[in-house]
Design goal:
The protein has 378 residues and is of the alpha/beta class. It is built from 12 helices and 12 strands. The protein is 34% helix and 14% strand. The two termini are 24 Å apart.
């Protein structure tokens, strides 16, 4: 089934926990990397070289063909001044573009409001997962959230009501600590937090979908399969959001990180194949981001919260290659004596996506003007 609308679509994948960028895009010929990383390190004979200085983690093998085909952009050194190392606050800053105060409006929720000002489609923004991400939360802006298309389709009304109540409570529990129960209640009142309102419209999506692509049996693959099914149903969704958890590797990183990389890379490759099979790849761009990078030195088993992370932009309309600069690994240039410095502000990447892809004015959303990149073919 081919989508009726060819409006630009953004898929955002959040790597929750702080992905280790240095062990994702590996500076495999840099001695400072091997000096700093004694245990949590990718050996030179293991990597998949991209050029003379950088390489893919071997578990990202599924991304190499996308890079070679010019469909993968690697954004290096993403961050912001005085980066916050708290998971909650760090992600909150990336969700609201408010590093100096606790914000109440998510950047993608604001984008949805601009794209659908009359709230004509509750499926303009869709979150795949339980509850609702702060990035899509704006009072008065309806966003649909669904955890499992197949499971939701067979629920009865009582089960759906319980799911809605659990989703609301999860939202209160997460955001009430940060912005207070008053603003959270106000948000819920203004939107009805009817995050399941559009879910009923998705009940038949699974039945109308067919594909030769066989996604793996893991959470991120299931989520991206659901994104594909909704997109291919032609329901007018412009922004999809999902997350891949488990990246907070203070310990046992070399045991856990490889599996996450394999699952993520494989799911993205299958998703792109699925879209291309259905002639629906040109209008989709994917942003893969995380709240912060990890520190230069490992701690013997894992890595602690740092800065200067990285992101991916993926799609048929992406000009593949490298964007911004890989942070200096020279010890004298480490931030606070232990971190990678950021080389581009995350708000400039958001602005790039908002203006160049979604056609939305960025400055009111990212709260200023920031350096953009030029990653799109048209």
């Amino acid at each position: 089934m081919v989508t009726e609308s060819k409006e630009k679509v953004l898929v955002v994948i959040q790597l929750t926990g702080g992905n280790d960028f240095m062990n994702t895009i590996v500076p495999y010929t840099n001695g400072h990397y091997y000096d700093a990383r004694k245990k949590v390190v990718i050996r030179q004979d293991e990597v998949i070289p991209i050029n003379d200085t950088l390489a893919f983690n071997p578990n990202n093998a599924a991304l190499k063909p996308l890079f070679d085909d010019g469909k993968l952009g690697i954004i290096q050194g993403i961050g912001y001044p005085n980066a916050n190392r708290s998971h909650f606050r760090g992600m909150d800053i990336l969700h609201t573009c408010e590093p100096d105060k606790v914000g109440t409006e998510g950047w993608l929720g604001l984008a949805v409001r601009e794209m659908d000002p009359n709230q004509e489609n509750v499926l303009t923004g869709v979150n795949i997962g339980r509850g609702l991400t702060r990035a899509m939360s704006v009072a008065g802006v309806p966003v649909t959230s669904i955890g499992d298309i197949d499971g939701y389709g067979v629920m009865n009304d009582v089960e759906k009501a319980h799911l809605r109540d659990r989703s609301i409570q999860a939202f209160k529990n997460i955001y009430g600590q940060a912005i207070g129960s008053g603003p959270v209640s106000e948000y819920i009142g203004k939107t009805g937090i009817d995050i399941l309102k559009g879910a009923d419209m998705l009940s038949d999506v699974a039945n109308s979908y067919s594909s030769s692509v066989e996604y793996a049996d893991n959470p991120i693959a299931k989520s991206l399969k659901d994104v594909a099914r909704i997109h291919l149903a032609g329901l007018g969704t412009r922004v999809f959001y999902t997350n891949h958890g488990g990246y907070d590797h203070h310990a046992n990183e070399m045991l856990a990180h490889p599996g996450l990389m394999r699952d993520l890379s494989g799911a993205i490759a299958d998703f792109i194949d699925d879209l291309e099979e259905h002639d629906a790849a040109e209008e989709v761009a994917i942003l893969v981001f995380t709240e912060f990078g990890r520190r230069m030195r490992d701690n013997g088993s894992g890595t602690d919260h740092g800065s200067g992370g990285g992101a991916f932009l993926i799609g048929k309309n992406i000009k593949g290659g490298f964007y911004s600069e890989y942070p200096s690994l020279e010890p004298s240039e480490w931030e606070h004596g232990e971190d990678l410095k950021h080389t581009i502000d995350f708000r400039g990447i958001y602005a790039t996506l908002l203006e160049q892809w979604l056609g939305v004015e960025s400055s009111p959303i990212v709260r200023g003007h920031y350096e953009q990149i030029n990653p799109f073919l048209n």
